[in-house]
Structures are given as C-alpha cells and as structure tokens.
Design brief:
This protein is an alpha/beta fold. Helices cover 58% and strands 7% of the residues. Strand 3 (288-291) and strand 4 form a beta hairpin.
C-alpha cells in the first residue's frame, strides 16, 4: 500500500484515486473563497472587541524601535537597550510591519494590531488549502481550513498572539513552498527562490523556523533517491541540480533572516542564532499552572503535556478525524514496512528498488507528516519550557488539520452511500461549535471540548484565559457603572488591571480619562483576572464579574477604604 494517496493530473493539483468530477472541484474552490471571505469579514468587524494581550505591550514597544534601527542606518540601538529583556531574540519583521501600519492612523493602534495580526493568521490558514489538495486530494483543503477556523483555541489566538501567529503564517507558507519543491524532479528556479525567502522569513520570526531545513533536506533527499532509481548513473547531473537548488534555498534563507533580524547583524550571525536558540530551548521561567487538574510547572511539564492539551482544546470532530487520519498513515507505513521486509527476505537488498521508489514518490506526504508531528516530538525530547496552553505549537494545528482531512477522505467511499446522516452530524457539530464561540467571544481561545468538560468543566483545571482577554470587557462594565453613579465626575478613578507586571501599560485599554494604577492600596477599583487574582487577601469587595458558561473570567472589585473616603 502506497503512502502517497494522490496522482498528478498535470494541473499542479492532486487527484484522488477514486476520482472527482470537475464540477465538484469548482464547487470546492467557490466554498473555500466563501469561507475565507466570511472569516475575513467577521474578523475585521470584531477586531476591536479584543483586549491587549500581555505580550502585545512589549511587542508594541519593540516594533517601532526595531524599525528605527533601519531608518537610522543602524545607529539607533534602542531595540537592544530599552525593550523588555531578550525580546530582541525574536525577529521583529512583523512588529515593524504593525508599527508601519499603525502610523497610518487608520484606527485605534490596538485595533490596527489585531486586524493586521488576524489578516496574517488567516493568510497562514489559507495555505492549508493547496497543501491539502496536493497531498490528500479535492475537498481536503476545504476540510482542513474549516477545521482550523472551528478550533476556538486557534481562531481566537489569530487576533492577539503577536509572535505565534506570524510564526504560523511563515511555517504554513514555508511548508507549502517545500511541498511544491519536492513534487518536482528538479525544482524550478522560481520555486527555489520562493522557498528560500519563505524559510528565511520563518527563521527571522523565531529560532524554531530552522526546522524547515529538516523538511527541505529530507524531501530533497527523496527527490535525489528517485532520480538515482529512475536514471542510475545518468541521473548524476540531476543529482547535482537537486543539491544546487537545496543549497541555494538554505543560502537565500539565511541571507533573508540576517537582513530582517537585527540580532543576527550585531555579531557572528550563526553564533547569535545559536545563543537565541539555546535561550528559548530551555527558558529560565518557572511558575505553576493547572493541567488536567494537576499542578504543573512550566519548566517541568510532563512528556504528555502537548498531546494532552491538544486532546482538550481541539474540537471533538477534529480529534476523531485526526485519529482516523493518523491510523490511515500508520496503516500505509505499516504496509510499506511489511513490503520492505518481505522483499528483503525474498530478494535481499537488490530487490528493494520498487519499495524505495514508492517511498520516494511519497515524499510530499512525508513532509506533511514531519511538519505535523516533528515539532511536537522535538519539544518533548528536549524538555522545553512550555506554558500558556500550547500556543508555542499553534503553527502545528494547520498541519494536523491536513492529517484530519486525510481521515475524512478515507471515509468518503462509505459516507457517499449514506450521505444524509454524516452531513446532518457535521452540520449539527459545526452549529454547536459556532454557537459556543459566539457565547465565548472575545474569549474564543478559551474553548475546550467535551473531553475536558467544556469551558465550565475545564475552568480551574486548565490555564484558560492566560492572556487576560476578559479584562477589557470588565473595563467596559466598569465604565457603565461609574457613568451611572457619577461618582468621579471631576476626579478620575484610579484603576488597577492585574496584567502580570504590566499594569502600568493598562491605560491603553481605557476609553475614559482614568488613571492606570499599579499600587493595590491606592486603587479605587481592581480588575482581577483568572491568572492574576490580585484581590485575594484584600478588603476589596466584588461588585461585578465577567462570566462564560457560569464561570468568572474577570472580576471587578471596589476598594472600600478608598471609596469610603
């Protein structure tokens, strides 16, 4: 049984072995455009609803200062001296882009940041459509895209994860470029250039982007294997071309990374990169959080942490299809392994040519397999510091969606016999998810599936609102309360918003002339969040709360000592 489940029809897209009519292909394209258009409309309309995540305070400072490095002809070093420690070890290209768009004053700076982040994230998700078509078949692209958009943890994060979303974008498009490259016997110069730029942008976003080199080298090695099997010694010239294009991609990638990442420019680029890589491989950060109801520390997470988090955060339908897709690929790999062992037993090494050719032809699927599971395995093996759910592997979810789409493709021959039942189940499941996300808005990223007990059952057992996205809604409620009372008509209130050592920056969320207080004793009101319950142990009295499914995500407290004066 071949790992590769598709054939090339000459159009550049994949054709499933069971065949699909042209009309169906056209319908899928229209539906993809419709889904992307609807998501774009909803995202831009609601971008202003989201608050400032704790990491957006420092990246909003990083962007303009990184931009100044270039506009000052590399004289302004403020990005290395006055931004939050070690922020310079992330590539700043996206933060510079946001800073440039913010200068256009199209809207509130935070709204602009959220809109630009969402646009980039949606563009990253769009890349799964061609990847899935090329490696699975028709309708797989639409399926993978829909699964991504219906995953609340992923969809909500598209607005306010200032480093993870750009990384998702570059990793998705890098993977697509590599898939396009390995599908050709000898890559074209245009695809080679695009792959070099995309993988370079990945490295220039986060050190983990270097893993794209592993995808590239592995895929191109299988290209070389196919050339040898097909042409023998006559294929040596093709081998040289493959090696040249591979090396050229790596060269372009590093030149791109160096050009876009100032940290690599102030010393030996490779020494600088290794320092950043080592820093993020084992962050010196330790704090406690809940993981499936167990006390867990960021610098000592169990090996099952990432799979366990995905098991709780991916929708049930996504999980079911993902498990099916994994079983299909494992079955294909098992069949190939049995065929290889059988050939070795019967014919020895000389008989391996057919199975080796089969492996080489499956290289595009193998690239996606590595992109879906390789980063997770690497993080587990190196014992990385992890926290905030699994936002560090946000970029893997689109690849997992492609595997899930493969699971659905394997069911199509059966589902076509009884189409009404699966369609009804799919529609009902989708409607239930959309309703849940509507109720959670703008806390979609806190969505949990039934295995975790839903949002209500997961509350207190998982780290849900780690970005403190409920704080802005609490502020809006406090605005209405103070306006109604008229208590501070001539003297603005002092409000403390608990945001992990960034309370002094909370004023950017205020829509009134209030004072962002940092001293709990001097605050008139406190906004306590799930991660930062700052009112515990004080005499402050709770006056309101922001709830979802009966659970408080933010609470408003009045300081009786202050207000009583």
């Amino acid at each position: 049984m071949a790992l590769e489940r598709v054939e090339d029809d000459g159009s550049g897209f994949a054709r499933p072995n069971f065949g699909v009519a042209f009309a169906a292909r056209h319908a899928e394209t229209l539906l993809v455009v419709l889904v992307l258009g609807l998501a774009l409309l909803v995202g831009l309309v609601t971008a202003a609803d989201y608050g400032v995540s704790t990491d957006e305070f420092n990246t909003d400072d990083y962007g303009p200062k990184a931009l100044a490095w270039y506009t000052s002809s590399f004289a302004d070093r403020s990005q290395f001296e006055t931004v939050e420690d070690y922020l310079w070890m992330y590539g700043p290209w996206f933060q510079m882009l946001v800073a440039a768009v913010q200068r256009l004053e199209l809207a509130n700076p935070i709204t602009v940041r959220h809109a630009v982040t969402f646009l980039l994230g949606l563009a990253g998700l769009a890349a799964v459509v061609p990847i899935a078509r090329l490696t699975v078949g028709y309708w797989a692209g639409l399926t993978a895209l829909a699964l991504c958009l219906l995953t609340g943890f992923l969809y909500g994060s598209l607005f306010f994860a200032p480093i993870d979303v750009p990384f998702l974008f570059v990793m998705s498009w890098s993977t697509l470029a590599i898939v396009l490259m390995v599908r050709q016997e000898v890559p074209s110069w245009r695809v080679t250039l695009a792959t070099g730029l995309a993988t370079g942008l990945a490295i220039a976003t986060r050190t983990g982007g270097v893993i794209t080199h592993a995808y590239l080298v592995g895929g191109m090695s299988l290209c070389a294997l196919e050339a040898l099997l097909r042409h023998g010694r006559a294929g040596y010239g093709q081998l040289r071309q493959i090696a040249l294009h591979t090396l050229l991609v790596i060269l372009i990638a590093w030149l791109t990374a160096i050009a876009l990442w100032p940290w690599l420019q102030i010393g030996n680029p490779f020494t600088q990169f290794l320092e950043a890589y080592r820093h993020f491989a084992k962050l010196d950060t330790s704090f406690e959080f809940q993981n499936w109801g167990r006390r867990t520390f960021t610098d000592n997470v169990p090996a099952w942490y990432i799979p366990g988090q995905l098991l709780a955060r991916l929708p049930e339908g996504f999980l079911a299809l993902l498990l099916l897709g994994i079983s299909v690929w494992i079955g294909a790999a098992g069949s190939w392994t049995r065929a290889t062992l059988g050939t070795l037993h019967r014919s020895g090494l000389m008989g391996l040519r057919p199975v080796a050719a089969e492996l080489a032809k499956s290289r595009a699927v193998l690239v996606i397999s590595v992109a879906a599971f390789g980063p997770i395995g690497a993080l587990i093996l190196q014992g990385s510091t992890l926290y905030d759910g699994v936002r560090h592997v946000l970029f893997v979810i689109p690849m997992l969606a492609i595997v899930a789409a493969c699971g659905l493709a394997s069911l199509l021959p059966i589902l076509r016999r009884i189409p009404i039942v699966p369609v009804a189940v799919g529609v009902a499941h989708t409607v239930a998810i959309v309703v849940t996300l509507g109720i959670l808005h703008p806390l979609e990223y806190a969505a949990m599936n039934g295995l975790a007990g839903g949002v209500a059952g997961a509350y207190g057992r998982f780290d849900l609102d780690y970005w403190s996205m409920a704080a802005p809604e609490a502020l809006r409620r406090l605005e209405h309360r103070i306006d109604a009372e008229g208590r501070f008509a001539g003297d603005p209130p002092r409000v403390l918003v608990c945001l992990a050592w960034r309370e002094q920056f909370a004023g950017v969320m205020f829509r009134r002339n209030w004072i962002a207080e940092t001293d709990l004793q001097k605050a008139d009101y406190l906004i306590a969040t799930e991660r930062w319950p700052c009112a515990v142990g004080t005499t402050a009295v709770r006056v309101d709360e922001v709830t979802r499914f009966g659970r408080p995500f933010a609470e408003i407290y009045a300081n009786r000592r202050r207000l009583g004066k």
